Amino acid sequence: MKDVDLYDRSVATLVQSWRYLAAGSPGAEVIEEEGAAIAIFLRPPESKFLNNALLLPGHGELGATLDAVERIYRERGIGRYAVWVHESQEVVVTALEARGYAYDSSTRTMAMPIAGFVEPDTSGLDLVELRPVEFWRVHEQDGFLPELSADQAHFHICRLEGKNMATLMAFDHEGDCGIYMVWTAPEARRRGLASALSAHAVAEAEKRGCMTASLQATSMAEGVYTKVGFRDLGRFDEYVLGAAVSDGRDGGDAS
Predict the structure, then answer these.
(1) pLDDT band at residue 122 using 50, 70 and 90 as cut-offs
(2) Which residues contact residue 2 at a Cβ distance below 8 angstroms, ignoring those fewer than 6 apart?
(3) I need a labelling partner for 80 at 20 to 30 A (CA). Which of 70, 114, 221, 249 fits?
(4) What is the pTM assigned to this prediction?
(5) Residue 177, phi then psi, degrees to nearest 5
(6) Which residues does residue 154 pair with via DSSP β-bridges, in sequence order?
(7) What is the DSSP letter of 143?
(8) Is the per-residue pLDDT at 244 higher than 60?
(9) Chain Cα centroid distance, residue 133
(10) CATH for the stretch 113-233
(11) Which CATH architecture has domain 3-109+234-245?
(12) pLDDT in tens, 88-108
């Protein structure tokens, strides 16, 4: 499968995963307008992380698209949000900077075909699935997405000696499995747990009929996913309005 096809599938899954998360947060929604997918989360703690807008492939006139993003967030009283821009979209970066946006953070978009994927031996690991409320508790985020249903996603966790050491959420959309919310306990890093858990999630996704898997990786995790077999499809840079940079926004990382 060509990288452009993997990228398009990964974007579609990412946007649909935002819709899934929005269904679990009162008043949240995802709007597609003027070629942008705009995630709107009104209540904390979700609003701190998940207010993101992504320009979609083949978006329309750039000025109208950015006008729509700003208008929709302004109408809902949201001042802190990130606009996701692929590194290839230099013209978008120029337009954002002219409007007062500044670079905030980035993730690497990665994907892979999974036909015939062979899961490494994980027999020595305790791998289980949790309900969403239990999953958020591991992340010390009680009350996060209080209405989220477990029916559309898989919440994987790796335990060592009874302790929760690594987690991820797997979300399927039209044959692509998006891997998000990846976390490893600080004391368990560099032990291959995130790599093993990701490989397990990919193998389980193939059993469900998925043909590809995709994710957005932090710089710390890029090597983890490369070992599993994910391809580098370029970087998503996140831009926020200048005042929000110093406001401590912790958002936009779906990995």
Answers:
(1) confident
(2) none
(3) 221
(4) 0.91
(5) -105, 115
(6) 170
(7) T
(8) no
(9) 19
(10) 3.40.630.30
(11) 3-Layer(aba) Sandwich (3.40)
(12) 999 999 999 999 999 999 999
